[in-house]
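ZP: hey, is the zinc ion complex queued? I don't see it on the tracker
AM: it wasn't, my bad. submitting now with these inputs:
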Amino acid sequence: MTELIDDALHILKENKYKITKQRKSLLTYLSQYEESYVDVTVVDDYMRNQYPGMSHNTIYRNIKEFKEMGLVEQRMNGERACVKYQCDFSHKHHHHFICTSCSKVVELDSCPLGYFENQLPGYKIEEHKFELHGICDECQEKLVKS
Ligand SMILES: [Zn+2]
Ligand SMILES: [Zn+2]
Ligand SMILES: [Zn+2]
């Protein structure tokens, strides 16, 4: 876990951000969510509890900066923004499988973009979202047992 934080702190420094107590504890808190997403309002509540003087704006801005630096990943769950700790700092672009039963997130190795690019010669694809949903192996085992 500490090693995980060290890498993130290193990236913060590279991006010329000061390592404040608040940023460090925000990162430490988020590092618990490497395998699942957490609602940003939950993160906000936690931080406001730890640092009553910290404003919502500051917390949301920090999360946004972390996202831009590739320290966290964000997705929308309906209307709600959720974040998780970056799966892999050296492999920023990747996709996920998300278990609909336990919400576990699994990092996928490959990106299907090339496959579609081949079908659209001469086009410029500017954005893509790809996510697999289903039941993970552990949940399937539990289903069989119960
Ligand atoms: Zn990921
Ligand atoms: Zn599962
Ligand atoms: Zn991709």
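AM: back. Helices lie at 2-14, 21-30, 40-50, 56-68, 113-119, 137-145.
ZP: great, adding it to the tracker
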